[in-house]
Amino acid sequence: MITNKSFEEIQLGDAARMQRTLTKQDIELFGWLSGDMNPTHFSDEYARMLLERSKLVGHSMWGGALISSLLGNDLPGPGTVYLSQHFEFHNAMELGDILTVTVTAKEKNPAEKSVLFDCRVVNQRGENVITGVAKVKAPTQKPTAAGSPYAATQLHRKMAFQRLINHVKNWERIPTAVCHPCSKEALEGPIEAARLGLIEPILVGPEAKIRALAESLKLEISAYRLVDAAHSHDAAAKAVALCRSGEAEALMKGSLHTDELMGAVVPSATGLRTERRISHVFAMDVPTYPRPLFITDAAINIYPTLEVKVDILKNAIQLAQALNIPTPKVAILSAVETVNPKIPATLDAAALCKMADRGQIAGALIDGPLAFDNAISKEAAMIKGIQSPVAGEADILLVPDLEAGNMLAKQLAYLGRADSAGIVLGARVPIILTSRADSAEARLASCAVAVAFAHRLRGKPMTQKPVKE
């Protein structure tokens, strides 16, 4: 339901707040829409050359646009009309900065129904980025229920990844073995996650190389444990050993190939195998879908059998529950929504649903086979006459095989502009798989997912960080 706060309802001191992480997608979209293609916003080299900064710098007016969106969406909300705006810019916004935007009512003018708002944007270090004053004409009427439901959904949609990060950022840090963090992205990711209080990184790799890289990036790593390793193979073995011993409760991929890391994970004698099959889950934030979407398995099990799919499904359900989705809705995907003996995936779907009915798979609402459109669109399901508690509201998509899952995830990422966080489950600890193409927010979300799952593996209530007096 769309709502607002009318002029009469607004009291001096009323405030609204939002938080956003500056992503590469934000920079690209704002540049395209505004026409401001200053290369310091799009090229690390130009940012270093012209501004002496190690990261891309966002458009200053993007921060101003966040203030505008807060006034228009929340306080006063729909019906607000801008009369004037004054900005002062204090610090640059760098890629990955977490910005807190606040507007506070400080003066009302009954004659023109206007409200003066103090406006402020601060970064994660508490530094002022933007301050200013906005004068707006506040709405005098309340919206009715006659508006578009789609508009209401879009207006109040919160970024899924930010919700994930907020969900765990006050929990106790998880010690995480970071394997071979020898590239810019591989080192910046865990350090940023540590700065936000998500993980306690243990950096495993060639010590001299890591220290030189940190110095070149102006990253302070003296507070973190560093385990020297001769090369990437040695780093993988030592990082896995830290997890086996209990010194680390999560494993994070750095600048080495996934096969190399997993090669150290899978041996029964020295790795992290359990009785359950290891599988991969993409946690995706799709701009056009109102909830996180989990796709599995799109990275490890190539052509899973029915038995393997049971474990893949159990892993994904356990992950969703760790992320505060107590009864996730699972769509078992195929090309069609009817059982067809010529399409093995539909037979597997029917069997999995019956196993769920008999309690062999618990903790979720499961339906299938469902074609992709029926899984994510209630309208598509209604047109086809499909009665399903899952259709249009799926949290988890179980794909037929790795090829289908990988293509689906990458289509959502590159055509649908979705962000994706990757995690491997079924091992003794969650394994964070990151890519050089991941956004800063996606890397943080991967850590947040692992933190939630690691706390669940502890088998006790989530522990909170001590509150400072």
Gyration radius, rounded: 24 Å
Helix content: 25-40%
Q: Roughly what fraction of the amino acids lie in strands?
A: 15-25%
Work out the number of β strands: 16
Major sheet: 11 strands, mixed
Can you tell me the CATH superfamily of the largest domain?
A: Isopropylmalate Dehydrogenase
Average predicted local confidence, pLDDT: 88
Q: What structural class do the secondary elements suggest?
A: alpha/beta
CATH class of the largest domain: Alpha Beta
Counting structural domains, the number is 3
Q: For the terminal residues, how far apart are their CA atoms?
A: 40 Å
What would you note in describing this structure?
- By secondary structure, the protein is α/β, with parallel strands linked by helices.
- The protein folds into three domains: 15-156, Hotdog Thioesterase (Thiol Ester Dehydrase, Chain A, Roll), CATH 3.10.129; 173-260, 3-Layer(aba) Sandwich (Rossmann fold), CATH 3.40.50.10950; 274-426, 3-Layer(aba) Sandwich (Isopropylmalate Dehydrogenase), CATH 3.40.718.
- Helix content is 36%, strand content 22%.
- It is built from 15 helices and 16 strands.
- The chain has helices at 24-34, 44-51, 60-73, 149-156, 160-168, 184-195, 207-217, 232-245, 258-265, 306-322, 344-357, 372-376, 378-383, 402-414, 440-458, and strands at 15-21, 81-89, 98-109, 114-122, 128-137, 174-179, 199-205, 225-228, 250-253, 279-285, 293-296, 329-333, 365-370, 396-398, 419-425, 431-433.
- Helix 5 packs across helix 15 and helix 8 (232-245) crosses helix 9 (258-265).
- The radius of gyration is 24 Å and the shape is globular.
- It starts with 14 loop residues before the first strand and ends in an 11-residue tail after the last helix.
- The model is unreliable at 147-158 and 460-469 (pLDDT under 50).
